[in-house]
Write a structure and sequence with these properties.
Structural class: mainly alpha
Strand content: under 5%
Radius of gyration: 36 Å
Shape: rod-shaped
Order of helices and strands: H
Number of strands: 0
Number of helices: 1
Distance between the termini: 124 Å
Oligomer: single chain
Largest sheet: none
Helix content: over 70%
Length: 85
């Protein structure tokens, strides 16, 4: 059976302390990486919202242009059929 001595106990606690320190460092790194990923995700989400907004503006303008063209074509067609004095 292993005899537990002060030196053995001290060595064991030193190893445990080193492991805990390593785990704390790893956890800090994971937290920092998590924060960086969340910031990137928020930025990407903002970009998607901006692109969607721009797309909606373009579609709205396109619809107004199409409406104007339809009105112009309608007016041109009417002018062709109206008698000129």
């Amino acid at each position: 059976m292993v005899e537990v001595t002060q030196d053995f106990t001290h060595e064991l606690f030193q190893k445990l302390d080193a492991e805990v320190s390593s785990l704390k460092k790893d956890l800090r790194n994971l937290r920092r990486e998590n924060i960086e990923l969340r910031e990137r995700l928020h930025t990407a989400h903002g970009d998607v919202i901006d692109h969607h907004s721009t797309k909606l503006k373009i579609l709205d303008r396109l619809e107004r242009i199409e409406n104007r063209l339809d009105l112009r074509e309608f007016a041109e067609a009417q002018a062709r059929f109206e008698p000129h004095p």
